[in-house]
# Entry
Amino acid sequence: MSRKKARDNAFKCIYELEFNKDASVEKILENCYEENGNVPEEKEYIEMVLNGVKEHLEGIDKIILANLKNWSLDRIAKIDLAILRLAIFEIKYVDDIPVKVSANEAVELAKTYGNNDSRSFVNGLIAKVIECKDE
# Structure
């Protein structure tokens, strides 16, 4: 199993959910698995993340907003928002993934999929979230 591949696919599912709010999680997952040929362990992680982000979306978004100054969610690039939601979900709700791994993987996703500012934006916000978590 590749956790990196599963995380990449989970990010894409979260991103898709942002644009297809009426789509069922099951349909998004079905499309993901069909496109990527995920193995059972990857499917388990992707499903856990997508369902978890959807379930805790309001709380995750409050965490994002609490760590921004004079910003709204609408101002954040959708790709960056999906990355932040994934990373914050892992940091807050998944005990078996080290916080540093979630942070590093979020920065890698931002480098791969985001714009020139995504890496530093995601890194800075996740660092604030981790700092608050440790208090």
In short: The domain at 3-134 is CATH 1.10.940.10 (N-utilizing Substance Protein B Homolog; Chain A).
